[in-house]
Specification:
The chain contains 14 helices and 13 strands. By secondary structure, it is an alpha/beta fold. The chain binds nicotinamide-adenine-dinucleotide.
């Protein structure tokens, strides 16, 4: 297995990245920029073609980076798995969604592992990056790869290394975010750490793939539970006439032992709403209950309903029923200033408002047309971000704190704003008077 380590040192190793999405594309680029030749695999021919043309389909990844890597002959995208044989290292970055009953769906990992096994050759290093429960690399990927007849630790190496991408973040990049790496044996850890170390700034080796898998879940469970905590406190303080955001700002001044989390209309994004349930599911296999995870999930998934009840209260105070009112939801993205709407609570908000009889539109320039997703088909287009347009609605519901929604002049003609992110009052300033009426939710 010295061959692959040697080629990593010389940067002559070829890195294959299976899945060219939010995780795989930036990861592949970082290796290309470090001087490696990268082969990006994806089943979506549109992504393969876009990369070939040097175009980006992810807003925060500049096309110039892709163009430079492709033109320099260091990046090629393909749908042809036979090119796996060219690769010294194969990094798996395929989706790990939840099924309809919140059960883990590792089918993408399994099908990828089978494709790799069919072409596996001695000396290759395989690293799983997709978020999953502890044991997946050892108990599921390893036997699938060994079905090739090759033996793990003897003929090929296997590790897990979780991704820590935060779309839209400027202070950290794929290169500078520390990378945890755990192999199924010490040699796998050593070689995988050497590979990542050749392209990224800081590697954190751990004793096993299981620890690396669990580490990722701890990070996401931590966020989910703390967000649930502030969401629950938001509802309690609201009853008491206390503004939770003001409380959090005050608590943040404590120089130790406190970390601020912000409440919102519900969880969004590819990770936090989903990954904790991977652990809850696996815990059951070991006869354990992941109570914090379940409780946080319950509180967080309740949030859109709570926001809708606030919209009803706000309209009621104006003498209007929610039924038949025109409501505009501001923001379809799950977080500010990104074109990522995966698991965004805005979809559910819109559907719940519709169920209550409201006539609903949305405004989000990042999504001129609402995508049809596995769960939702809104059939809507974004209305323009324009004060006159905003003035035509009975209520606005701010769901995403995009910078463009922090322009107070947008709300000139608005009557009622239900603000789930605490940005509108500051945008309007103290001169706004009592119009629009702002309801924090
Ligand atoms: N997006 C994030 O911020 C983030 C952060 C940390 C971890 N993760 C984890 O990383 C993994 C990938 O997430 P993502 O956000 O990149 O997903 P994504 O949907 O953006 O990308 C996955 C890509 O894999 C492709 N694909 C699916 N099946 C394939 C197959 N059999 N062969 C080749 N390509 C295939 C899809 O076409 C898609 O382009 C998930 O496990 C996710 O939980 C994501």
């Amino acid at each position: 297995m010295n061959g692959v380590a040697e080629r990593i040192r010389e940067r002559s190793a070829v890195v294959g990245v299976v899945g060219q999405g939010y995780v795989g594309l930036p990861l592949g680029l970082v290796f290309a920029e470090a001087g490696f030749r990268v082969v990006g695999f994806d089943v979506d021919p549109r992504k393969v073609a876009a990369i070939g043309r040097g175009e980006s389909y992810i807003r925060h990844i500049g096309p110039e980076r892709i163009g430079a890597a492709v033109a320099g002959g260091r990046y090629v995208a393909t749908g042809d798995y036979d090119r796996l044989v060219e690769c010294d290292a194969i990094l798996i970055c395929v989706p790990t969604p939840l099924g309809r009953h919140r059960e883990p769906d590792n089918s993408y990992i399994h099908s990828t592992a089978r494709e790799i096994a069919a072409r596996l050759r001695p000396g290759q290093l395989v690293v799983l990056e997709s978020t999953t429960y502890p044991g997946t690399t050892d108990e599921e990927v390893r036997p699938l790869l060994e079905a090739s007849g090759l033996r793990c630790g003897v003929d090929f190496l296997l590790a897990f290394s979780p991704e820590r991408e935060d779309p839209g973040r400027r202070d950290y990049s794929t290169r500078s975010i520390p990378k945890v790496v755990g192999g199924v044996d010490p040699e796998s850890t050593r070689v995988a750490a050497a590979l990542y170390g050749a392209a990224l700034e800081r590697i954190v080796p751990v004793s096993s793939a299981r620890v690396a898998e669990a580490c990722k879940l701890l990070e996401n469970v931590f966020r989910s539970v703390n967000i649930a905590l502030v969401n629950e406190l938001k509802m309690i303080f609201d009853r008491m006439g206390i503004d939770v955001w003001e409380v959090i700002e005050a608590a943040k001044t404590k120089p130790f032992g406190f970390m601020a989390f912000q409440p919102g209309p519900g969880l969004g994004g590819h990770c936090i709403p989903l990954d904790p349930f991977y652990l809850a599911w696996k815990a059951a296999e070991h006869g354990e209950w992941a109570r914090f995870i379940e409780l946080a999930g319950e509180v967080n998934t309740r949030m859109p309903r709570w926001v809708v009840s606030k919209v009803a209260d706000a309209l009621n105070a104006e003498g209007k029923p929610l039924h038949g009112s025109r409501v505009l939801v501001l923001g379809l993205a799950y977080k500010a200033n990104v074109d990522d709407d995966r698991e965004s609570p805005s979809y559910e908000l819109i559907e719940l408002l519709r169920e209550a009889g409201a006539v609903v539109d949305y405004c989000d320039p990042y999504f001129p047309v609402a995508r049809k997703t596995r769960k939702h088909d809104l059939g809507l287009r974004s209305v323009p971000a324009d004060p006159e347009v905003f003035g035509r609605y009975d209520a606005l519901v701010l769901a995403t704190a995009h910078d463009l929604f922090k322009d107070g002049s947008l709300y000139r003609g608005a009557r009622v704003v239900v603000d789930t992110r605490n940005v509108v009052a500051a945008a309007l300033g103290p001169e706004a008077g009592d119009r629009p009426r702002i309801w924090k939710a």
